[in-house]
């Protein structure tokens, strides 16, 4: 092996400055490309997280609306409205012997329970437009 062959082997084993420079330039390009890609992916991730939160909020609102609508449908089948008050069906084709609030559907009561001129009042502050004396006539007119 001659001197030239030894130098050639040494350069191949340990690399020359120009080869190392080329390798470093390539590595720098790859690092820059990866940093750019990382930045793009970070931005996309932030957008996706924001969109996810917005969709979760919309889903929660939709679920609340569905619950409210289901309750409303259930109430429609359970209660009949007349004269601003509700009357609850008893399941036997008649109605319970009570008047329910036109605002919150809670059971109402009169002040004395006996006076036919008393109106029905709810704990929420609502009251009927009719008196206890009219209740029987109203109940008989219900479908």
Description of the molecule:
- The model has no long low-confidence stretch (mean pLDDT 85).
- The N and C termini lie far apart (115 Å).
- The longest helix is centred in the N-terminal third of the chain and has 62 residues.
- By secondary structure, this protein is mainly alpha-helical.
- The radius of gyration is 41 Å and the shape is rod-shaped.
- The protein folds into 2 domains: 73 residues; 58 residues, no CATH class.
- Helices cover 58% and strands 11% of the residues.
Number of domains: 2
> pLDDT average, as an integer?
85
Count of helix runs: 3
User: Unreliable segments (pLDDT under 50, ≥5 consecutive)?
Assistant: none
Which structural class should the secondary elements be placed in? mainly alpha
Number of strands: 4
* Distance linking N and C termini: 115 Å
Shape: rod-shaped
Major sheet: 2 strands, antiparallel
The helix/strand order is HHEEEEH
* Percent of residues in β-strands: 5-15%
Spatial order of strands in the largest sheet:
1-2
Helix share, percent: 55-70%
Return Rg in Å.
Answer: 41 Å
Please write out the topology.
Blueprint: H1 3-14, H2 17-78, E1 79-82, E2 85-88, E3 119-121, E4 127-131, H3 132-140
Antiparallel strand pairs: 1-2, 3-4
Short overview:
By secondary structure, this protein is mainly α.
Q: Which tags fit this structure?
A:
143 residues, mainly alpha
């Amino acid at each position: 092996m001659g001197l030239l062959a030894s130098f050639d082997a040494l350069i191949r084993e340990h690399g020359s400055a120009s080869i190392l420079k080329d390798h470093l330039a390539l590595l720098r390009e790859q690092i820059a490309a990866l940093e750019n890609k990382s930045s793009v992916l970070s931005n996309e991730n932030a957008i996706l997280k924001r969109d996810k939160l917005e969709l979760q909020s919309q889903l929660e609102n939709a679920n609340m609306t569905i619950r409210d609508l289901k309750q409303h449908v259930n109430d429609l089948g359970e209660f009949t409205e007349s004269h601003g008050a509700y009357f609850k069906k008893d399941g036997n084709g008649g109605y319970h012997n009570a008047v329910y609030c036109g605002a919150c559907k809670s059971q109402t009561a009169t002040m004395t329970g006996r006076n036919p001129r008393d109106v029905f009042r709810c704990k929420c502050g609502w009251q009927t437009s009719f008196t206890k004396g009219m209740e029987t006539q109203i109940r008989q007119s219900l479908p």
